[in-house]
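Hello K.,

You asked for the raw outputs rather than the summary table, so here they are, unedited. I folded two proteins back to back in the same session to keep the settings identical. This is the first:
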Amino acid sequence: MTTERREPAVDADERTMLEGWVDYHRQTLAWKCEGLADEQLRTAAVAPSTLSLMGLVRHMAEVERSWYRRVLADEDAGPMHYSDEDPDGDFRVSGSDTWQEVHAAWQAEIEAARRNAAGVPLGEPTRGKHLRTGERFTLRWIHTHMIEEYARHNGHADLIRERLDGATGD
């Protein structure tokens, strides 16, 4: 499978632009993981960091879940891979983690995000609140934050992928 990335049109309306850039960055992370075996995806390629491509995807599934389910829609959706005792558990992978399972969980969270965001006005306060601060946000803010979150971690993915097999690209 070849991941197709599409930038939003330069003349798109605000919502289409924001959703387009979030999707572009989702597609970029998928592209960075493409064609690698599970063992490679679990490999922490830059010592002493334990960061791996599979860990990044698990983390982004958690981030999607937190913002679009808990904060935007006020769903009771607990964490999948981390806890109060292990706040970075989403980044940690083991030999039993598979790309098929991690990718499926990430895609399910992306679909939930799209479903929960559909029809919500960009400037309306969220139904839920941030777990730590108790703040409400807007969908505009969440989309913008997700662009930042994916862009930052896609930079990590670039370096990890290059270290694994020499593959580079924007």
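The second followed immediately with the same parameters:
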Amino acid sequence: MIKLRALEPEDIDFLYLLENEESLWEVSETQLPFAKHLLQDYIQHAHQDIYEAKQYRYVIAFNEEPLGCVDLYNFSPKHNRAAVGIALLPPYRRKGYAKEALQQLIAHTQQYLDLHQLIAYIPADNEVSIRLFERVGFSYSGVQKDWLYSQGVYKDMLLYQNIFK
């Protein structure tokens, strides 16, 4: 069983690997590798309250070993919603960890943050992520045409929502 936990200073090597995993750059603003000292500074300030920072990063851990992260961002306590993103290091993909992490995150956001909905932005060609989010209750809600630009090509971004009853 996985566990969602806060970032710790000893996660620096894991975070360095995750943030410099080029396959994840397409959906972020990342274009250049991160230096460890910048990531150490990020970890040092990651304790900020979600109500202040409007975002929070959870480490996905199995037997205390970090496998990836699930992020809440664009948190809106007024409208009771947040966006969610998830990233796993390549050796841990397609093993059920992401599904379990999202299920735990959904329960946590309903119980402790009183959210009404979560939103996920998924590249239209990322069938694995589309299936993942659909399996945990997200539904297709719309498309943002030519939203991502990667390696000389524009790609559509799909909007998925999980609205809680």
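The beta strands are 2-5, 56-62, 65-76, 81-88, 117-123, 139-150, 153-163.

Happy to rerun anything if the numbers look odd on your end.

Regards,
P.
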